[in-house]
Amino acid sequence: MTGQEVKSVRLGHLSLKESFVTVRGTELFLTNAHITPYKQAGEIKNYDPTQPRKLLLRKSEIKHLTGKVRIAGLTLVPIRVYTKKRLLKLEFGLGKGKKKYDKRANITEREVAKQISRN
């Protein structure tokens, strides 16, 4: 992250909506997190607010997480960003996607709720 991005995140101009953590080789990247440009810094040329940002972790943590992602089919989902002294920290968790039958059950529940509300 650049200094301008860090200042913007500290002001709370970060959206983790639709973001996730990807594994590329032996590195982890925060993808689709939207950081608005820092207004006092002026205009930045060719700035992409949703560009992938490298996460710094220990080798053992990276190996553990990549194993979970590749073998178990889990997804790394960012939960929150906070500051600790002068550092920005990202808290993320392992998530498991829904199965097809779970999705179907939710759709039928929604349809039943709509029909009840109509009557």
How many distinct domains?
Answer: 1
CATH architecture: Beta Barrel
Radius of gyration: 19 Å
Oligomer category = single chain
Distance between the termini: 54 Å
CATH topology: Small Protein B, Chain: A
Instruction: Name the helix and strand elements from N-terminus to C-terminus, one letter apiece.
Output: HEEEEEHEEH
Strand content: 25-35%
List the uncertain runs.
none
Structural class given helices, strands, pairing? alpha+beta
**Major β-sheet annotation:** 3 strands, antiparallel
Task: Give the fraction of residues assigned to helices.
Answer: 25-40%
Structure, explained:
This protein is α+β, with helices and mostly antiparallel strands. It has one domain (3-118): Small protein B (Small Protein B, Chain: A), CATH 2.40.280. It has helices spanning 3-10, 59-72, 100-118, and strands at 14-15, 20-24, 27-31, 34-35, 53-55, 75-84, 87-95. The strands form three sheets. It has a three-stranded antiparallel sheet, covered by helices on one side. It has a two-stranded antiparallel ribbon with strand order 1-4. Strand 6 (75-84) and strand 7 form a beta hairpin. The chain is extended and about 55 Å long. The chain starts with a helix and ends with a helix. The model has no long low-confidence stretch (mean pLDDT 88).
